[in-house]
Write a structure and sequence with these properties.
The chain is mainly alpha-helical. Helices cover 49% and strands 5% of the residues. The chain is built from ten helices and four strands, in the order H-H-H-H-H-H-H-H-H-E-E-E-E-H. It has a four-stranded mixed beta sheet with strand order 1-2-4-3, covered by helices on one side. The radius of gyration is 21 Å and the shape is globular. It starts with 9 loop residues before the first helix and ends with a helix.
């Protein structure tokens, strides 16, 4: 896909179908980051006991379906225990450092995402860590530059725009931006990032411990920065040239092969679309195995 760097003329817009007009205003930061940041992952090369707790899963060629999730009451108990452990760790640090209790406010919302919906795109490390950093910095900056009732709204609006541009949407960061305006100290940024790091560490330990028995939902993170997986198949964000799965480029192809599914970096799939691709990938994988 070619990004247009400048707006097209009025006549060219008028001649375009209605669904394709104003595409010059689209922006996908990943198409630029792909040229700057490494794409390969070291997780497959780590000992399995380590990579498992970092969210990496090795797809089994003989597993047609993942094990069913635990019964509802067990699942609720596991999720609640994780939230308790995460928040307790954060509040313990806040107590040791004699910090104000309001620091924990946005961490409570983050705990719900991390431990109840660990596979949600909004709960992944890129969203969790970067959004909290952006929100705390923006909130403190706005609080120092703007006074009055409009300051929290400006901070949240600015944070929302930055999260959209950087693909790091994480709802609890909105609360962080408001709290940062109220606090107004740069120290708050460090406190938020330390708390977020602790929460992420607890999530990696607890959620992946719950996934030791193969339950698909017992995994966090599902991806770190670039997408690594959709369901049981390995999925790489970006499309390489045919026959070169290690070279990542922006493109318009969806490639299904035994090693996994390769998607264009700009393509975002819904749940049903992912299920369809998983089914196709399973048939391709099984056919190759029988041959």
């Amino acid at each position: 896909m070619t990004l247009i760097s400048s707006p097209p003329s009025t006549s060219s817009i008028a001649n375009q179908p209605a669904t394709e007009r104003y595409r010059w205003a689209d922006f996908n930061i990943d198409t630029h980051l792909l040229r700057l940041l490494p794409h390969s992952s070291i997780l497959p090369f780590l000992p399995r006991v380590i990579s498992h707790f970092l969210g990496h899963r090795v797809p089994s060629p003989h597993a047609h379906k993942p094990p069913p999730p635990p019964p509802d009451m067990v699942l609720w108990t596991l999720s609640a225990t994780g939230a308790f452990l995460g928040i307790s760790a954060v509040t313990g640090i806040a107590h040791l450092l004699s910090l104000s209790p309001h620091v924990v406010g946005s961490m409570g919302a983050a705990a719900i995402l991390l431990f109840l919906t660990p596979l949600s795109p909004l709960a992944q490390p890129r969203n969790l860590l970067l959004s909290q950093m952006f929100a705390s910095v923006i909130g403190v900056g706005v609080g120092r530059l703007v006074t009055g009732w409009a300051a929290p709204g400006i901070a949240v609006a600015a944070t929302a725009v930055v999260m959209c541009v950087t693909k790091t949407v994480h709802p609890p960061a909105g609360a962080t931006a408001v709290l940062a305006v109220v606090d107004g100290r740069w120290r708050f940024v460090g406190v938020v990032m330390a708390s977020t790091g602790v929460m992420a560490g607890v999530a990696m330990g607890w959620v992946n411990f719950c996934g030791l028995w193969g339950w698909e939902g017992g995994r966090w993170p599902e991806r770190w920065f670039w997408g690594e997986g959709v369901g049981v198949g390995e999925v790489r964000v970006g499309v390489g040239e045919k026959g070169d799965g290690e070279e990542w480029r922006d493109g318009e192809e969806v490639v299904v092969r035994r090693e996994g599914i390769v998607l264009p970096v700009w393509l975002e799939l819904g749940v049903e679309e992912r299920e369809v691709l998983e089914g196709i990938w399973g048939r391709v994988r099984d056919r190759r195995i029988r041959v």
